[in-house]
Design a protein that fits this description.
By secondary structure, this protein is α+β, with helices and mostly antiparallel strands. The chain has helices spanning 3-13, 18-25, 33-52, 67-77, 89-94, 110-122, 140-148, and strands at residues 56-59, 62-65, 99-103, 126-129, 132-135, 155-159.
Length: 166
C-alpha cells in the first residue's frame, strides 16, 4: 500500500492529529534521529499534497478524510477480491471452529494483511492474537486466491479436533 493509501486508511479508522498519524503509520518504531526527521518531513509534505488535492481536510489540527478521499480509497480497494458475503456472516459464526490460521505477512503486502483480517472476520473467525485466528474451514477457491496473490507462503494452517479444543 502506498503512503497515500496508508494515510487515508488510517484517517478513516483513527481520525486525529499529526502525531497520532505518525505513530500509527510508522508503528511506533523509534527510528534513528536523522531517519525520524526524514519520515516526519515526508509525512508533512504528503499530508499537504493530499489536502491540496482534496483527499484530506485539516480542522483545528485533526485530519479527516473527504468524500473524494473515500472514493480514491475505494477505487484502490477494488483491486483485491472479496470472498465472504455480508449476508452469510451470522451463518458463518455458527459453524464449528476447528481451523487455526497463523500468518506473518510482510510490510510490503500490508494491504493483503488488512484484507485477510477482514475476510477472516466475515468467514466467522475469532481473533486469538493479532495474527492468530480460529474459525471454520475455508473454501478451496479462497486458499487458491491466497496463493495467486502470493501470500499463501506467509500463512500456516492447523486443524484441531474436538478433543484438542479446550
Amino acid at each position: 500500500m502506498s503512503l497515500v493509501q496508508d494515510i487515508l486508511f488510517t484517517v478513516t479508522n483513527y481520525p486525529g492529529g499529526y502525531r497520532l498519524l505518525y505513530d500509527i503509520i510508522y508503528e511506533n518504531k523509534p527510528p534513528a534521529k536523522s531517519e525520524k526527521r526524514k519520515k516526519e518531513n515526508i509525512l508533512r509534505v504528503t499530508l499537504s499534497r493530499m489536502k491540496k488535492s482534496g483527499l484530506l481536510k485539516n480542522k483545528k489540527g485533526d485530519w479527516t478524510i473527504t468524500p473524494e478521499g473515500k472514493k480514491f480509497l475505494e477505487s484502490k480497494k477494488m483491486e483485491i477480491r472479496k470472498f465472504f458475503r455480508p449476508e452469510t456472516i451470522l451463518d458463518n459464526r455458527e459453524k464449528p471452529k476447528r481451523l487455526i490460521i497463523i500468518f506473518d505477512i510482510p510490510e510490503k503486502k500490508k494491504k493483503y494483511r488488512e484484507w485477510l483480517r477482514m475476510e477472516l472476520v466475515g468467514f466467522g473467525f475469532n481473533l486469538v492474537q493479532k495474527s492468530v485466528w480460529i474459525g471454520p474451514a475455508l473454501s478451496k477457491e479462497f486458499v487458491e486466491y491466497l496463493d495467486e496473490v502470493a501470500i499463501l507462503k506467509h500463512i500456516r494452517f492447523f486443524r484441531a479436533t474436538e478433543k484438542d479444543l479446550i
